[in-house]
Amino acid sequence: FLTKKSGDKQKKKDEVQRVRSAINIENSDDERGSGDDSDFERNDVVFLKSTRGSGTSNSGTVVGSGSATIDKFYKKTSIEESVCNNQRGFNVSQKVQSKLSTTKREEKRDRVCEYICQFFYEASIPHNTVTLPSFAHMLESIGQFGKDLRGPSPYEMSGPFLQKRKQKVLDGFKNHKESWELTGCTVMTDAWTDKKGRGVMNLVVHSAHGVCFIDSVDCSGDRKDGKYIFDLVDKCIEEIGEENVVQVVTDNASVNVSAASMLTAKRPSIFWNGCAAHCLDLMLEDLGKLGPVAKTISSAREVTSFLYAHTRVLDLMRKFLGKDLVRSGVPRFATAYLNLKSLLDNKKELIRLFRSDEMNELGSYLTKAKGKKALKVVHTKKRNRLLHDMMRDLVFVKFNSKLRNKRENKNRDPIEKEVDDVLADYENEFITRKEPTAEADEEQEKAHEDASEEEPNRASSS
């Protein structure tokens, strides 16, 4: 039995090696390739510049005194430095000039990109992820390794390498910690509940150096009262250091008010303040209930829900506007005002749309479709079956990486939410036409404020 098992393992190993050996970037039409161009079969470099006191042979090997290697021509750099150098261009003053077959390199690159794209297509990975700096670092490291790279196993990705990456993120907190000691910091909580009643609370620290993600706690099976929130925040303060914390910022739910009184009693030097964004969100909600404003928002919702309820009309709208009409904001009630502004900005295009011959041709179709259910766009998400500790580490690495990239690229509207497809924002009433009711708001408020409520029945966010 052991012999058979060992033999099967060896067969699998040989099969993997056979498949990998069949990959050849010399030819984009055939996996094996012809390999006729022997001069550039290994992407050899032809040196044109020689150092003083030494010459070069016709094959490109350095001849002269000392070791016949090219190590003397360059200084070893890190992956990040190599990527930056490639993006800035080739520095002639610091490196040896080289000449490659440009056409051959482009053919090889196209073949390599085909394999990369095939992986993205099969794994359903969003295409815009290639703009991440880590993707460029990955390509550079693979190129420096060379052939026969053995990729990480699923265990290594979710275990050792995840812990290594988490430790590197923690090591990068040095500047944050120095800022905490110098100017102090603010501890912020972000609690929300999904549609299945699962509660999650994130702990984030803000300072003069920026924002960093500390921890994510699954509180689905816990009683989310003032004592529970106080314990989480107090533990976070203990890790940071009480002398480094200036204030704690949360929303204005009653459970947070109760936790604030407990914190004041234990740590009187730390302030507990309400979230300004949450206050503004509540103000926008109250403004939206005023008669003229509510009527305007309702009329706008009729227009947008009609446009997004029919695929042919939606396609025609995007043709005239060249973009989506509905916008999505982080605060729920800010979305209404963002969409009102979008309607006003695109007023002329919308008038042209409804007066166009294409829209008139759809009249019979829309009449027949009237009374039927609007086409529902179903979005499914693949959720990893991961333990919460592992998921927490993934969130830790991902969240802090996004925060770092955000600090480096401050060119986005802070109130706008990133949605690849506006139809994916299934909670936007300007698409679903489901106007939030007073009963729904009361249920959401009760889910946050009732200390005895363990599993809310409706989704809410704060």
Automatic annotation (TrEMBL):
Protein name, UniProt field? DUF659 domain-containing protein
- State the residue spans of region: Disordered: 1-41, 431-462
Which domain of life does this protein belong to?
Answer: Eukaryota
Under SUPFAM superfamilies, the record lists: Ribonuclease H-like
PANTHER family for the chain: OS05G0256350 PROTEIN, OSJNBA0013A04.12 PROTEIN
Pfam families tied to this protein: DUF659
Q: Where is the composition biased (Basic and acidic residues)?
A: 1-18, 30-41
Tell me which residues make up the DUF659 domain: 152-303
Source species: Aegilops tauschii subsp. strangulata
